[in-house]
Specification:
The protein is built from 16 helices and 21 strands. By secondary structure, the chain is an alpha+beta fold. The radius of gyration is 23 Å and the shape is globular. The two termini are 44 Å apart. The N terminus and C terminus are likely disordered.
């Protein structure tokens, strides 16, 4: 599954987009009163890429979709699925058949009623070959989804049926323990076919070409602008639980800009970096988190022949001092990676050991410049190259630019290596990465749910997010067996996932860098923001402003 891919290819995104407000029964300040003005002003470090759930590939887009749309479930305060549009669920056939009864009377913002057929249409559209959704593989556990996506079966063969106006039945190919968590993710939300037919290819490219069924409506977004607003949706079925009336968002690629806006009281939040963090650690507004996302350096074997050589890839990895990067350059609490899969992705079901500890391959994330030089010389002799002159493509955020400059300096300590930096807007970088149009690039991956497979399948040979050209038959076999043979054998499945991570790291299929921390100032009038493992608010009902 992808996410298989970059749930993204996220390069230093702000993961804090607010999801909404809380209900007075469970939240509130000491007086039980809310502020008269329920308007929140928020910053993002990148532009919004898409409001089309089948085309979104980055965390910010999915977070906006979580705010403006709704599916069968939402994650509750414990990060577990709770009913949203589903009122009841029955699981039969050994965990392979799900029958959902849907909430009645829910409206789209265009006045249509949300029905079971909207889920059928949405899932069929995502897996349809002509849609070319990078995330379609997420649905491959649904019966016939992969065959439909490859054009071998008609859309009608997909294992989802509207068995009533408000009744939905889904057939899976196998039991999937985390399926309900997936259903809380926007890719599995419904779509209004009337709106998609009306706007065609323009659907989801602006706030005016999208319809909504969630707590907020996206407004004032033209598809490329650096600001937009999430306005309370008057047709949302649970609107009484939403206290915020408006969330104004503005893009500030530089934390210096967002920090100044915060201090001028023009925003209620700002991300921090470097000296800003040191200066604000004791502030009552200071918040620090370590989301379950990882940043990595991808080497495109399809563009640079030398990157097909394992020794060259290992040399590049060994030339990078990750501790120096996080401690002296980023200085934001980020943690040097032990591997591609970060911490927080689960524990051995038998021993309790964390995945990133058990799968640790020291040589894949260590610093040894002397060994790096030796391996590079060996690798270049094998490839016949006398020098490497490569371009590193990164987004225009502060963190990415700082990381790029550090990597440039580190890699150029290797003999005959020259690295140029190409900085582009984040949305443009996503497109280039998805098209494999890079030599070196900084990529990020953010978890949708806490399981190692949510990262590992990024590098399967057929993954839409694996644009590096790296492939391993052994790696693919281990993941296939873990998911399709050992799905109900937790210990055996875990062992194969650990082994797969070691295959990826021993072969340096990608170069892990760090697990990114998010430090910010959040006004103390903004209360009770709860985050899921991805660092995204998971329940709009528990967030509010009280003054």
């Amino acid at each position: 599954m992808k996410r298989k891919g970059t749930l993204f290819t996220i390069a230093a995104l702000s993961l804090l987009t607010l999801a909404g407000c809380g209900n007075a029964a469970s939240t509130g300040n000491a007086s039980g009163k809310y502020a008269a003005s329920q308007v929140l002003n928020w910053t993002e470090s990148s532009e919004l890429a898409s409001s089309d759930l089948a085309q979104a590939t980055d965390t910010l887009s999915f977070t906006v979709l979580q705010n403006t749309q709704e599916g069968l479930y939402r994650l509750n305060s414990k990060g577990t699925p709770a009913n949203a549009l589903a009122t009841s669920t029955k699981v039969t056939n050994g965990g392979k058949t799900y029958t959902f009864n849907l909430r009645k009377g829910v409206k789209w913002s265009n006045g249509d009623t949300v029905q079971a057929k909207d889920f059928v249409y949405s899932w069929q559209r995502t897996v349809a070959p002509k849609t070319a959704s990078q995330d379609a593989f997420y649905l491959f556990q649904v019966k016939n989804a992969e065959a439909v996506n490859k054009g071998k079966q008609p859309l009608s063969a997909l294992g989802i049926k509207a068995t009533g106006k408000y009744k939905l039945t889904v057939q899976l190919t196998k039991p999937v323990s985390y399926f309900k968590k997936l259903l809380a993710w926007p890719l599995f939300y419904p779509l209004n076919q009337k709106a998609v037919d009306k706007y065609g290819k323009k659907y989801g490219t602006s706030s005016d070409t999208t319809v909504y069924n969630g707590p907020f409506r996206l407004t004032k977004w033209n598809g490329t602008g650096k600001s937009w607003t999430l306005a309370k949706n008057p047709t949302y079925w649970d609107k009484q639980a939403v206290h915020l009336t408006k969330i104004n968002e503005v893009v500030t690629e530089s934390t210096t800009t967002s920090y100044n806006l915060f201090n001028a009281k023009k925003t209620d939040e700002t991300l921090l970096s470097g000296q800003q963090i040191k200066n604000n650690k004791n502030s009552k507004d200071f918040v620090k988190r370590l989301p379950t996302g990882s940043e990595r350096l991808d080497l495109n074997q399809n563009k640079v022949k030398a990157f097909k050589n394992t020794d060259v890839r290992k040399a590049f990895s060994l030339a990078i001092d990750r501790s120096q990067l996080v401690n002296d350059v980023l200085q934001d609490g980020s943690v040097a990676s032990k591997g591609f899969v970060p911490s927080g992705m689960g524990n051995n079901p038998k021993t309790g050991e964390a995945f990133n500890q058990e799968a640790y391959v020291k040589s894949a994330s260590s610093y040894d410049l002397k060994q790096a030089k030796t391996l590079l010389a060996k690798g270049l002799k094998q490839t016949g190259d006398k020098k490497l002159n490569v371009t590193l493509s990164v987004s225009d955020t502060d963190t990415n630019k700082q990381t790029a400059e550090f990597l440039q300096s580190s890699l150029e300590k290797l003999p005959n290596v020259k690295v140029s930096i190409k900085t582009v807007p984040y949305v443009q970088l996503i497109t280039q990465q998805n098209n494999g149009n890079y030599e070196l690039t900084l990529s990020g991956w953010q978890s949708v749910f806490a399981d190692p497979i949510n990262f590992l399948d990024v590098f399967e040979a057929n993954s839409s997010y694996n644009t590096t050209g790296w492939k391993s038959t052994e790696f693919d076999k281990l993941l296939d067996e873990a998911e399709n043979q050992d799905g109900n054998k937790p210990t055996e499945r875990w062992a194969k996932l650990v082994k797969a991570e070691k295959v990826l790291m021993n072969d340096q299929g990608t170069i892990p860098l760090y697990q990114s921390a998010k430090s910010q100032l959040l006004r103390n009038t903004v209360k009770n923001i709860n985050y899921n493992p991805a660092g995204v608010p998971y329940d709009f009902k528990t967030t509010y402003i009280a003054k």
